[in-house]
Design a protein that fits this description.
- It is built from eleven helices and twelve strands.
- It is an alpha/beta fold and about 325 residues long.
- The chain has two domains: about 1-90 and about 255-333, Isopropylmalate Dehydrogenase (3-Layer(aba) Sandwich), CATH 3.40.718.10; about 95-240, Isopropylmalate Dehydrogenase.
- Strands 2-1-3-12-11-4-5-10-8-9 form a ten-stranded mixed sheet, sandwiched between helices. It has a two-stranded antiparallel ribbon with strand order 6-7.
- Helix 6 links the parallel strand 8 and strand 9.
- The structure holds 1,4-dihydronicotinamide adenine dinucleotide and magnesium ion.
- 1,4-dihydronicotinamide adenine dinucleotide binds near residues 69 and 242.
- 1,4-dihydronicotinamide adenine dinucleotide binds near residues 241, 263, 264, 266 and 273.
Length: about 325
């Protein structure tokens, strides 16, 4: 039996992660879950924000299902998510957005945002130049090596999809060296990958075009912060954060989670939509060779959402987390 490191996370984390674990078990994907702690939950247990026992488990299992972690805003410890992505070199953050809710704002959207996950403006090189004058700076990092591997990953992803399209998003007109390098690498690779229809967009124009007509996009690849923002935008196009899963892929390790955070405003109320984490769990299945179970889980979520009688409040329904989970489990069995 495959061992998987499990972090339930903060806020709604434990509610939605427990739901995903139940659904996987119903689909016959049996894992040995090794529960570990990180972030606020670890600190409350008197441990480090990212305890050695968590790192040790992930180093061994190489696969993790993770609930959202609360990151203090503007002060306190650095993001544990960012630390995990860097420590295990999880270079590609892959975020699919597909229209499931009929009659929603957009139908027929089926795109994937691939976000560079290890550098950019989130490299954490930030400091006060002069605290008394209230002057701070932050440095963005773009390397050819990291750009090549994430763009290469995006090309391969596009090659496996029917439309075979890749759009690279940048701001090379202003950030000529950093964003410019990312674009240069993409264009060089595109010249060799003639099997893929490649184009590029400037980030601000891209935000507008995604709202006007998201259907024309297939795979999108971009740097860390643009990808963070665009993937939430894309989640909004297809019904919100409750339905948006993410995989963090490295050469020899992978972490699966929801795009959303710990949602403190609804934590503990039993109404969070577990759809995002359940779909992340389906991606995990595919990653560890349980593709059939992954497909069944994904299809079950889609059928329950499309049918529409059991939806959580974020999708306009009245169902609780448990009721939605029950419906998905019934759909599988
Ligand atoms: P959030 O994603 O937690 O919440 C934004 C809004 O979406 C809230 O109104 C929330 O109720 C709603 N929402 C999110 N997930 C939902 C779900 N499954 N079902 C129904 N409604 C849902 O973003 P926010 O409030 O900015 O961040 C809260 C905390 O989460 C912060 O500490 C942030 O750093 C952290 N965070 C962690 C992430 C991770 O661990 N990967 C990702 C994003 C944020
Ligand atoms: Mg985000």
């Amino acid at each position: 039996m495959k061992t998987v490191t499990l972090i339930k996370g903060d806020g709604i984390g434990p509610e939605v992660v427990d739901s995903a674990v139940r659904v996987l078990s119903a689909a016959g994907a049996e894992f040995e879950w090794e529960e570990r702690y990180a972030g606020v939950a670890a600190v409350e247990r008197g441990e480090d924000v990212l305890p050695e026992s968590t790192l040790e488990s992930f180093r061994r299992t190489r696969v993790m299902l993770k609930g959202p972690l609360t990151t203090p805003i503007g002060k306190g410890f650095r993001s544990v998510n960012v630390a995990l992505r860097k420590e295990f070199d999880l270079f590609a953050n892959v975020r699919p957005s597909k229209s499931l809710v009929p009659g929603g704002r957009y139908e027929g959207v089926d795109l994937i945002v691939v976000r560079e996950n290890t550098e950019g403006l989130y490299a954490g090189i930030e400091h006060y130049v002069d605290r008394r004058k209230n002057y701070a700076e932050s440095i963005t990092i773009v390397s050819r090596e990291a750009s090549e591997r994430v763009i290469d990953y995006a090309f391969d992803l596009a090659a496996a999809r029917p439309r075979r399209r890749l759009t690279l998003v940048h701001k090379a007109n202003i950030l000529k060296y950093t964003s410019g390098l990312f674009l240069e690498v993409g264009r060089e690779m595109a010249a060799r990958r003639t099997d893929i229809e490649f184009d590029d967009r400037i980030i601000d124009a891209m935000a507008m075009q995604l709202i006007l007509d998201p259907r024309r996009f297939d795979v999108i690849v971009t740097t860390n912060m643009f990808g963070d923002i665009l993937s939430d935008l894309c989640a909004g196009l297809v019904g919100g954060l409750g339905l948006a899963p993410a995989s963090n892929i490295g050469l020899d390790a992978a972490m699966f989670e929801a795009v959303h955070g710990s949602a403190p405003d609804i934590a503990g109320k039993g109404v969070a939509n577990p759809g995002a984490v359940i779909q992340a769990a389906a991606l995990l299945c595919a990653h560890v060779g349980e593709a059939e179970a992954g497909r069944r889980v994904q299809q079950a979520v889609e059928r329950v959402i499309v049918r529409g009688d059991v939806r959580t409040p974020d999708l306009g329904g009245k169902a609780t987390t448990a009721e939605f989970t029950d419906a998905v489990v019934r759909e599988i069995s």
